[in-house]
Amino acid sequence: MTERPVVKRTARAILLEGDTAPRMILIKRTKPGQAPYWITPGGGMEPEDATVVEALYREVDEELGAKVTDVVPAFVDTVPHPDESAEGAGGAGPAGASAGAGAGAGAGAGAGAGVKVQHFFVCRLASMDLTRRHGPEVDEPCGEYDVVSVPFTREGIASVEVVPPSLRAYLDANIEGVLALLADDLG
């Protein structure tokens, strides 16, 4: 099997607040004519981002006016990357996100097509000021971007349509493991 070129990398936050009953911060996306879906804060690397983690900090600041701490890699998802013209300027959407459901799924999965590598990091919310939000999602929105939080439990995650499905499945199978990534004794 030949390797496919990585044509896009993203950084996304599995962003938790609170210690005793943690909640996960999500963005509810509502686009005209589509059912709502929920995404983790984050987005694509930009040329000014020296690392994927730098992209994470920038994206969380843009989308939430937030600062994060205790950033730990948690999950990597590789999906076929559709043609940029088909994906649109916003990047993540239910069609593109559902490509993570299985190998070869989604548009652009033809031979020689590139892939998008999505890096998911578990991290703690240090502060958030929604009045500081900026960037394309705020300046030129395509639909609505509502910041919500859900209990970081299997029931809480199942209560919303988290995309991509591979992340939803990972979280369902690994709630305890994700919380352990933020334990004081991790090192």
TrEMBL record:
<dbReference type="InterPro" id="IPR015797">
    <property type="entry name" value="NUDIX_hydrolase-like_dom_sf"/>
</dbReference>
<feature type="domain" description="Nudix hydrolase">
    <location>
        <begin position="7"/>
        <end position="171"/>
    </location>
</feature>
<dbReference type="InterPro" id="IPR000086">
    <property type="entry name" value="NUDIX_hydrolase_dom"/>
</dbReference>
<feature type="compositionally biased region" description="Gly residues">
    <location>
        <begin position="88"/>
        <end position="103"/>
    </location>
</feature>
<comment type="similarity">
    <text>Belongs to the Nudix hydrolase family.</text>
</comment>
<dbReference type="Pfam" id="PF00293">
    <property type="entry name" value="NUDIX"/>
</dbReference>
<protein>
    <recommendedName>
        <fullName>Nudix hydrolase domain-containing protein</fullName>
    </recommendedName>
</protein>
<feature type="region of interest" description="Disordered">
    <location>
        <begin position="80"/>
        <end position="103"/>
    </location>
</feature>
